[in-house]
Design goal:
CATH architecture: 3-Layer(aba) Sandwich
Number of domains: 1
Helix content: 55-70%
Number of helices: 5
Low-confidence stretches: none
Distance between the termini: 29 Å
Strand content: 5-15%
CATH topology: Rossmann fold
Oligomer: single chain
CATH superfamily: P-loop containing nucleotide triphosphate hydrolases
CATH class: Alpha Beta
Order of helices and strands: HHEHHEH
Structural class: mainly alpha
Length: 112
C-alpha cells in the first residue's frame, strides 16, 4: 500500500488503508457507509433472501471490527483518520460529487 501511494495519484480501497497511510499528508481518506436497511435492500436486489442479507451484513461488519482491532489495535471505524464520512444512501452521483468537491477544497488549502 505504501509503495503504491509513493507512485502518485491512485485510489486504494481497503479497510487498512487509512491506518497504513495515516502519517502521509498527501492522502485523502473517505469512509463510505450505508444504513443497515439500505445494505439489506442492496443485497436483496441481487437476489438474496432477507435472512441471507442480514447474515452477510452482520458477518462483514463483525469481520471488519475484528480485523481492525487485531491488526491496528483500534476501533472500527477510527473516525479521526477520515477527512469525510459519507452515507451512500444519498446516491452515487452525490457521493462522487462530495468526494471530488472535498478533495479540491483541501487541495486549494494546501496550495495556498
Amino acid at each position: 500500500m505504501c509503495k503504491i501511494a509513493e507512485r502518485g495519484d491512485c485510489v486504494i480501497v481497503g479497510r487498512g488503508a487509512p491506518y497504513f497511510l495515516r502519517e502521509r499528508g498527501d492522502t485523502f481518506h473517505v469512509f463510505l457507509y450505508a444504513p443497515r436497511a439500505e445494505k439489506l435492500r442492496r443485497i436483496q436486489s441481487m437476489g438474496r433472501s432477507l435472512s441471507d442479507a442480514e447474515d452477510l451484513v452482520d458477518t462483514v461488519d463483525r469481520e471488519r471490527i475484528l480485523f481492525v482491532k487485531h491488526y491496528f489495535g483500534a476501533d472500527w471505524p477510527t473516525r479521526s483518520l477520515y477527512h469525510v464520512m459519507i452515507n451512500t444512501a444519498v446516491g452515487d452521483e452525490n457521493v462522487i460529487s462530495t468526494i471530488l468537491h472535498s478533495m479540491r477544497s483541501l487541495e486549494r488549502e494546501y496550495v495556498s
